Structures are given as C-alpha cells and as structure tokens.
C-alpha cells in the first residue's frame, strides 16, 4: 500500500486492484476514518478532506489487504440485447450471439467504483479471457442505457454521451437520480445481474 499526499488535506492510497480499493474504502467508512470523502477507483482510494494526513496513514496500517468487502444487494437490470457490437463480441469470444447473451446474463457483476459520468459504475465479473477492445474511434453518441463492455469491464451509460465501449444492448433503468439516496443505482459493492427481455 503506497500513500501519496494530494495537497494539504487529501491522500491518495495505491492498492493492487479495484477489489482492494473497494475493500479499503468500505473498511475506512466502517471504521470512521476522518475524511470528508472516501473515493475508490481502479487501483487507488482518494481520502479527501483529511484533517490530519499523518494520523490517517498511521490508522490505515490496521487495514488487512485481502479482506473481502461485504457483498451488497443484488440489483437486476433488464436488457434488450440488440446492441451494435453484439456480433463483434460474439466473434471475439468465438461463440454465437445467443451464447454472448447467455453468458453475460449468467454473470454476477460487482460494482467496483464509479466514474466517467454520474451513475456510471465499473462492473467487474467477466473473466479476463473475455476482455474485448474498445472501439478504435469512439462513437460521437452512445444512447442512455447502453450496456457495454471494454476490456474486462461492463458498464451502463447513465446518459447519452460519446463513448468507445462495445454496446451489447440497452436498458431503461435509471442509473442516476438525485432524488434517491444514494443517487447512483449501482454504488460500489452492489451485485448486478442483467436480465434479458
């Protein structure tokens, strides 16, 4: 675990991977670590609004890397598998389109961290041999609700935006709503199942 100061009141902690980052963030929240915000990412956790960075570094020594974070609730996301890249993914995986749909729907994903846009969760769960490359040239507009893959990640676009992920289908689920608490439908730790419709 490497720590780096980010100004006088923030600390960036580097860990091995996204699961470790989520585990550290969950541990820090459970143990009341003094920070205004705790933000996990792909291999880091940002502690912002830290009154005493040195005390935080000392306190983090109690965290045990490898401790699994508690599993969150399961959220089912209905999907119409009609995406522009479904055939590409089938060819990349060496299977038929129906097999892609079946495997994607059978996978239990976990939201590791949020980023890119409000409500966009990076979902882990695909085996690394199922990783697919991003588009060479991103699309100017990916529709709201697009369910897509990039590398070994899965994600759902909460709003229409440019994007380079491979689109498998679409959902009408609302990924971000400021009237909810939390506003993100899939906060870190949420288990996610995609349900074909």
Could you explain how this protein is built, in words?
By secondary structure, this protein is α+β, with helices and mostly antiparallel strands. It has two domains: 59 residues, Gyrase A, domain 2, CATH 3.30.1360.40; 123 residues, Beta Barrel (Cyclophilin). Helices cover 20% and strands 31% of the residues. It has four helices and 13 strands. The protein has a four-stranded antiparallel beta sheet, covered by helices on one side. It has a four-stranded mixed beta sheet with strand order 5-13-6-7. A hairpin with a 3-residue loop joins strand 3 and strand 4. Helix 3 packs across helix 4. The longest helix has 13 residues. It is elongated and about 55 Å long. The chain starts with a strand and ends with a strand.
CATH C-level class of the largest domain: Mainly Beta
Q: Would you tell me the overall average pLDDT?
A: 93
Share of helix, binned: 10-25%
| Alpha carbon gap, first and last residue | 43 Å
Q: What proportion strand?
A: 25-35%
- Which topology of the largest domain does CATH recognise? Cyclophilin
Number of domains: 2
Give the SSE string. Answer: EEHEEHEHHEEEEEEEE
> Got a strand count?
13
Rounded to an integer in angstroms, the radius of gyration calculated over CA atoms is: 18 Å
Shape: elongated
The main β sheet shows up as: 4 strands, antiparallel
Strand order of the largest sheet: 1-2-4-3
Low-confidence segments, given as residue ranges, are none
Q: Return the CATH architecture of the largest domain.
A: Beta Barrel
- Fourth-level CATH superfamily of the largest domain: Cyclophilin-like
Class inferred from helices and paired strands: alpha+beta
């Amino acid at each position: 675990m490497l720590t780096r100061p980010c100004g006088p009141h923030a600390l960036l902690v580097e860990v091995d991977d996204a699961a470790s980052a989520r585990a550290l963030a969950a541990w820090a929240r459970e143990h009341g670590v003094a920070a205004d915000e705790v933000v996990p990412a792909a291999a880091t956790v940002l502690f912002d609004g830290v009154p005493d960075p040195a005390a935080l570094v000392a306190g983090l020594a109690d965290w045990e890397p490898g401790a699994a974070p508690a599993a969150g609730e399961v959220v089912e996301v209905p999907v119409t598998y009609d995406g522009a890249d479904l055939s590409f993914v089938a060819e990349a995986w060496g299977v038929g389109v129906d097999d892609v749909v079946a495997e994607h729907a059978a996978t239990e994903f976990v939201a590791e961290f949020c980023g890119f846009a409000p409500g966009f969760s990076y979902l882990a769960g695909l085996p690394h041999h199922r990783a697919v490359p991003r588009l060479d040239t991103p699309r100017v507009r990916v529709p709201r609700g697009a369910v897509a893959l990039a590398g070994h990640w899965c994600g759902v676009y909460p709003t229409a935006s440019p994007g380079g992920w491979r689109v498998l289908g679409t959902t009408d689920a609302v990924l971000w709503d400021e009237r909810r608490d939390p506003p993100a439908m899939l906060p870190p730790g949420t288990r996610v199942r995609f349900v074909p419709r």
